[in-house]
Records
---
Amino acid sequence: MTTRQTASFAALTLAALAGMATHASAAITGWTGNATQIAPPPSATFGSLTGAPARAWDEQQGFIAVGLPVDLSINPSSSLLPTAGVVNGLVDSHFIHLEDFSGASVVGTVTFNNPIVGVAYSDLFLDASDAAAGAGPTLYPTFTPFRGINSFAGAQSIVSISGNTISFDLLTTPGIADFEQIRVYTRIVPAPGSMALLGAGGLLAVRRRRVRN
């Protein structure tokens, strides 16, 4: 195989792998309780999505996270014993939003097709990741106070993660401009076809070296 042919094969292989990685990522696969999935909305600012259930949607997919801060960096873990850290590498992002003035407990789960590697639910960490992780068509309340969970002493929400699932018990304070927002990062797992292609590329490289020898 000539150098030009090898370069062409490498380019085609990378393109195929990129397509498979995209296909293997980016999915909310289920939900329970007072939760539902929606398409990325035009706005997630205060007053735009009111009332239960908690709404979940997919954000940026297959992007390289660089030091994005999270409140939960260990899986499994809970907001009762938070483990702050950062998320790096190839991930998908997802969002959960609740704005409810009733003060009632909103309990539910959201499950993804890939394992959770980090969750941001504090104001500062949500603000820091809106630009990098947010869905393109959605306007986020960046730098708006009280967007994260547990913004008020009277509203103690709880979030926990295990495997591919996030569970929540969200409480807002009646009569106050308080809403609950959570950003979830999941790690992309290569599809079986991607691994097969990588193996084929490796075998071809070995064969090329043998021919040269």
---
Amino acid sequence: MLSRNQATQRIHELTSFIHHHDFRYYVLDDPEISDSAYDLCMRELIDLETCFPELRALDSPTMRVAGKPQEGFKKYKHRVPMLSLANVLSKQEFLDFDERTHKLLEKALEEPLEYLVELKFDGLSLSLTYEDGQLVCATTRGDGETGEDVTQNVRTIRTVPLRLRTDLPPKWVEIRGEALLPVADFERLNEHQLKNGQKLFANPRNAAAGSIRQLDSSITASRSLTLFCYGMGYFQNSDVKDLYQYEKLLAEWGFRIGEWREVVQGIEPVFKFYEKIENLREELPFEIDGIVVKLNRLSDLDRAGFIAKSPRGMVAFKYPPRQEKTTIEDIIVQVGRTG
């Protein structure tokens, strides 16, 4: 039997080890150890925390295991509002946006603006709050000012770090991102729903939202949700200058960020990126409905400001809608192929 001091040390070692290999497996898709070796370490950690329950920390890997069902979701007021993006649906509308942004920044139209372009994921927006590097709260967008506390469910998502991968975490930071269900997992989920006489989900976005808003977190844990992070809420004592730098920092902290992202100068590279991603859209493992175009420099974003509930220095450049294959007939055909 280990002493309390020995148990403390061993729990710390196992926690660090498991967090590292969670990151390698779920974020980098590059595992370094076998599943059996991982399972042995997790079992040892569970046994130690059972013997010494007072040593179980909020960032313990065992906290990802679903707890008892909740009675309801508490409300949570965002320290910085979660704004929604205005849409543009054509090249001309984007040109109008670019011209307006030049005027807001008091720049000549001939001077190209620096944009960050990336995928517009079609999922559920979340805000994760970390205090001293530890995840303390996860909430939905709600009305932009107030969301719902879904921390217990979000802890079950393996691409969400329970503790930031840094020895110098900020005192307080809100990180925004999108919870998604991969298309292949969405199709399997609907097959399961159909076989069990349950309601089908209309699309992966609805399936992700429904999974996050389960009162029983074991249901959330059973689904293959992932999280891509990109947005910044409250960030205490930040010295970050632009969004590209911020997303690189998120990757260093252990978050999954979008593979397709570029810093470009002016409008023509934006159009090229839009067309490139449109050609790749069917090959992506996740649903997207456009690209996001943002002023890259935080100083420019601050100068541009916002109107109503939308930032004026960012826009969603949407693709034409496509038909969703979510009818019962479609699922029956898919089940027949796989069953």
---
Amino acid sequence: MRSGTCERVSSETIVSVTIGLEGTGRHEISTGIPMYDHLLAQFAFHSGCDLEISARSLDALAHHVIEDVALVLGDALSRALGERRGMARYGWCLLPMDDALARVAVDLGGRPYSRTELGVSAQYVEELEVAMIPHFFTSISWRAGMTVHVDLLAGSDPHHKIEACFKGFGRACAAAWAPVAGQSAAIPSTKGVI
């Protein structure tokens, strides 16, 4: 089973993450930010990974918790992917959630890049700063070595719009890290390396 565990201890936060890619969507998440916990739970459930996240703030700043959890989750995901052999590499999802429609595409090919277009005018959703959502995707992409494109195509409810992005991200990741039958040793690149 592909899995990874990483920790980060700084003067700002203490974060621990364990991810198992061949899971059942089981999750235990505690960041101290209820909406963030909810979004990460959606990622776990819709990707089918098993995910344990424990984060404690040492300076009471939500920004540091959100960023550090994304960084450590990216590290753990990179560790779980290992040499990235035998996987599909690319994944995408067009996800409707009531009024919201999110398009998410990922490439687990080792190159970090992130572009997020939310079109959310609200500054906060359930006390989570909306500006931190693109920052989450940028931070995880750096550490996981993944390209992430997130586009909100429709929606009026800010909660639905952001949640649809995390559900779509989970489903796109599941498609990308899915094993390719009969190619367990293959590197998914014409270069022969990732």
